[in-house]
Design a protein that fits this description.
alpha/beta, Iso_Racemase_Enz_sf, globular, 3-stranded parallel sheet, 7 strands
């Protein structure tokens, strides 16, 4: 399975390379993610409601204009699953990191929670989960900056501080591009990118077998 992904914000070459390397490392055998930058007209960070809406519009436009040749699906590089409502309008299936991850854990009987870096992301994530009909507690806000996304120690420290306040057994680490420096077990804090890629690889295996 080969997927085309777009970042939800405009990033520089170094950050794009870091995110691509992360996909390369997390993708199971047989799954390839090709990541592209959304472009200089996109927001630089998702810090406000306006940023979230502008990002969603830009992601939808990018997938609509993309040449689908050689790709089996589209994957927004964002836990907010931008343009999920428009999934049927694209030339390839659109997959959502949060939808895949949250649906999986909900199917196991878990009520999920999430940890987001700011209030704008938390509000949109709550809206998205509600739209999917997935039971979830309100997303916890960690008050982190965009630069903290690439700082695994700072992000991990924030997770360690805020995660114990969650009531859910499973918490989504609500950023597609973060590596936690260590694994928590109470609650279980899951990487939505790693989880979604494993599920997509399983889907690809099943399709081949069929």
């Amino acid at each position: 399975m080969r997927l085309l992904a777009f970042t939800p914000v405009h990033v520089d070459d170094a950050e794009l390379a870091r995110r691509q390397a992360r996909y390369d490392a997390l993708s199971p055998t047989g799954l390839v993610v090709v990541l592209r930058d959304l472009g200089p007209d996109a927001p630089r960070a998702l810090d406000t409601e306006s940023d979230v809406r502008a990002s969603e519009d830009a992601v939808a436009a990018a997938f609509a204009a993309a040449d689908p040749t050689g790709y089996d699906g589209f994957l927004p590089d964002c836990v907010l699953d931008p343009c999920a409502e428009q999934a049927g309008q694209f030339a390839r299936p659109l997959y959502g990191l949060t939808r895949l991850t949250a649906s999986y854990y909900a199917s196991q009987g878990h009520r999920v929670g999430a940890l987001a870096r700011n209030a704008a992301i938390a509000a949109e994530l709550d809206r998205r989960l509600a739209g999917y009909g997935i039971p979830a507690e309100p997303t916890t806000v960690m008050n982190l900056s965009f630069d903290d996304i690439a700082d695994s120690r700072a992000w991990t420290a924030a997770v360690a501080r805020y995660a114990p306040s969650l009531e859910s057994a499973v918490a989504i680490n609500a950023c597609s591009a973060v590596d936690l420096a260590e694994r928590r077990t109470d609650p279980v804090v899951v990487d939505p990118t790693a989880t979604a890629l494993r599920l997509l690889a399983l889907r690809a295996d099943l399709e081949v077998a069929a």
